[in-house]
C-alpha cells in the first residue's frame, strides 16, 4: 500500500485499539499455547518484581536493624586518649556535650574477662558505666527482661544479656564470677583477679552478639576491678544525626581540649557494612535477570501472536487501520502483561514484607529448621524495611523493560503487508 492510498490516521489509543488488545489477551481454544506463554510472562514479572522488593526490603531492614543495635550500644564517635591516661574524663565529657549536634557524651571503663556460672564460663566484654549513662541507652534500660537498674551505682552488681544468662544458667539474684588476667601486682608477678557479682538485671537487645558477650558494671567498681582508679578507657559521643560524623570530627577533637584519637562508627565497622553493600548490589543484579527473562517471554509471546494474527492484521489494514494503530494495539497487549505483572508483584512484595517474620516462623515450623539463626545473622527477628525510592526504581525498571519488550513484535505487526498476508486466502 503506497502513501497515496494510506488511510487517514485515527486518534492514538482509540477505544477500538484497547478493545482489540483486550481480546488478544483473552485466549481462545486454538491460542492456548500463546496464552500459556503470556501467563508465564505475567508470573515471571510478578515473581521477579516481588522477589526484588522483598530482598531489597530485607537487606535494608537487616542493615537498619544492625546499625540501630550497634549505635544503640556504641557511640557514633569514640574519643580515646593519647600520650596520657584519661583522668579528666568528666571535664572532657562536659566540653563535648556543649558542642551543637552532640546528644550526650559517656565516659566508660572497658575490659575483657571470663564470666563463669553454674552452666559454664564464657568470655565477655565488660563495660563500666554510671546508672545515669545507662539510663540514656534505651536499648539497654528499656529492654530489661528481668531485674532492675535502680540504684545500679551502689548495688555493686552486674547487668548481663539474656543469652549470656541462659548460657551461664543464672537468673536475677544469682552470683556470677568475673575473672580477668590483669589483676593485682604482687612480688610474684601479676595474678588474675577473681570476684563474684550478683546479677541485678538481665537485658535483651535483640542482637545475639551483644546479648551473649556484653556485661555492665557500675563505673567506680569497673575502675577498681580493671586497675583504672580515677581514669576512663574512652568516651562515647552520641550525635543527634549519626550520618553527620564527617563534619563533626574536627569540632570534637578541638572541643576535647587534649590530645585524643577520634574514630567514627563507619570506620569501626567498615568491613562489615562494605560486605553488606556488595551483597545487596549483587543480589539486585542477579534478581533483575528474573525480570529480564520474563520480558523476553513477552517478546516471544507477542511474536507468536503477531504471526497467528497476520490475517486479522491484514483485514484491519484494509478496513482503514493505520500502521500506528496496529503498532499501538500490540504494544498495549504486551505492555498490559508487564504492567499488571509489575503491580501484582508490588502487591505481593508488600504483603510478604508486612508478614515476613510470621512467614519465617511458619516455614521454620514446616521444615523444622532454624531459617534465620540469630547466631549467624546476629538478629533475633527477620526485619524488612521497604524503601520508597528503591521500590519505585524496581517498579519503573520492570515497566520500562516490559514496554521495550513490546517494541519489536509491535513493529513487525505494523510493517506487515496486507497484500502478502491475504494472497493465499
Structural notes for this entry:
It is built from 18 helices and 12 strands. The protein is of the alpha+beta class. The protein has 2 domains: 210 residues, no CATH class; 175 residues, no CATH class. β7 and β8 form a beta hairpin. The chain is elongated, with a radius of gyration of 33 Å. It starts with 14 loop residues before the first helix and ends with a helix.
Share of helix, binned:
55-70%
Q: Helix/strand/pairing class, anyone?
A: alpha+beta
The helix-strand sequence is HHEHEEHHEHEHEEEEHEHEHEHHHHHHHH
> What number is the mean pLDDT?
81
- Counting DSSP H or I runs of 4 or more residues, the number of helices is 18
Biggest sheet architecture = 6 strands, mixed, barrel
What is the distance, rounded to the nearest whole angstrom, between the alpha carbons of the first and last residues? 18 Å
**Spatial order of the strands in the main sheet?**
2-3-10-5-9-6
Q: Got a strand count?
A: 12
Transmembrane segments: 33-59, 282-306, 326-352, 391-411
Family: Belongs to the ABC-4 integral membrane protein family. LolC/E subfamily.
Protein name: Lipoprotein-releasing system permease protein
GO biological process, one term: lipoprotein localization to outer membrane
Amino acid at each position: 500500500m503506497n502513501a497515496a492510498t494510506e488511510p487517514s490516521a485515527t486518534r492514538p489509543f482509540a477505544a477500538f485499539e484497547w478493545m482489540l488488545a483486550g481480546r488478544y489477551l483473552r485466549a481462545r481454544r486454538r491460542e492456548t499455547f500463546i496464552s500459556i506463554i503470556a501467563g508465564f510472562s505475567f508470573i515471571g514479572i510478578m515473581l521477579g518484581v516481588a522477589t526484588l522488593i522483598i530482598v531489597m526490603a530485607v537487606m535494608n531492614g537487616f542493615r537498619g536493624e544492625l546499625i540501630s543495635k550497634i549505635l544503640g550500644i556504641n557511640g557514633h564517635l569514640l574519643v580515646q586518649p593519647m600520650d596520657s591516661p584519661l583522668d579528666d574524663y568528666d571535664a572532657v565529657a562536659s566540653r563535648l556535650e556543649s558542642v551543637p549536634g552532640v546528644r550526650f557524651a559517656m565516659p566508660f571503663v572497658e575490659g575483657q574477662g571470663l564470666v563463669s556460672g553454674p552452666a559454664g564460663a564464657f568470655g565477655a566484654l565488660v563495660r563500666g558505666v554510671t546508672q545515669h549513662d545507662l539510663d540514656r541507652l534505651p536499648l539497654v534500660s528499656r529492654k530489661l527482661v528481668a531485674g532492675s537498674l535502680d540504684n545500679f551505682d551502689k548495688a555493686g552488681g552486674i547487668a548481663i544479656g539474656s543469652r549470656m544468662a541462659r548460657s551461664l544458667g543464672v537468673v536475677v539474684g544469682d552470683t556470677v564470677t568475673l575473672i580477668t588476667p590483669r589483676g593485682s601486682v604482687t612480688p610474684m608477678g601479676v595474678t588474675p583477679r577473681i570476684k563474684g557479682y550478683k546479677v541485678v538485671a538481665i537485658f535483651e537487645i535483640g542482637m545475639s552478639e551483644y546479648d551473649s558477650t556484653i556485661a555492665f558494671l557500675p563505673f567506680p567498681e569497673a575502675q577498681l576491678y580493671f586497675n583504672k582508679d580515677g581514669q576512663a578507657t574512652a568516651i562515647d559521643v552520641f550525635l543527634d544525626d549519626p550520618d553527620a560524623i564527617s563534619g563533626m570530627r574536627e569540632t570534637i577533637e578541638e572541643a576535647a581540649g587534649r590530645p585524643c584519637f577520634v574514630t567514627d562508627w563507619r570506620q569501626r565497622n567498615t568491613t562489615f557494612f562494605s560486605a553488606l553493600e556488595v551483597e545487596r548490589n549483587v543480589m539486585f543484579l542477579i534478581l533483575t535477570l528474573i525480570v529480564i527473562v520474563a520480558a523476553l517471554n513477552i517478546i516471544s509471546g507477542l511474536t507468536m501472536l503477531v504471526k497467528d494474527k497476520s490475517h486479522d492484521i491484514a483485514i484491519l489494514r484494509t478496513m482503514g487501520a493505520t500502521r500506528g494503530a496496529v503498532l499501538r494495539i500490540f504494544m498495549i497487549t504486551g505492555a498490559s502483561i508487564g504492567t499488571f505483572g509489575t503491580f501484582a508483584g508490588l502487591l505481593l512484595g508488600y504483603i510478604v514484607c508486612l508478614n515476613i517474620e510470621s512467614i519465617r516462623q511458619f516455614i521454620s515450623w514446616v521444615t523444622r529448621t532454624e531459617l534465620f539463626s540469630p547466631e549467624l545473622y546476629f538478629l533475633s527477628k527477620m526485619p524488612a524495611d521497604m524503601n520508597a525510592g528503591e521500590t519505585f526504581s524496581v517498579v519503573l525498571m520492570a515497566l520500562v523493560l516490559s514496554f521495550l519488550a513490546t517494541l519489536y513484535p509491535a513493529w513487525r505487526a505494523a510493517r506487515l503487508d496486507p497484500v502478502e498476508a491475504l494472497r493465499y486466502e
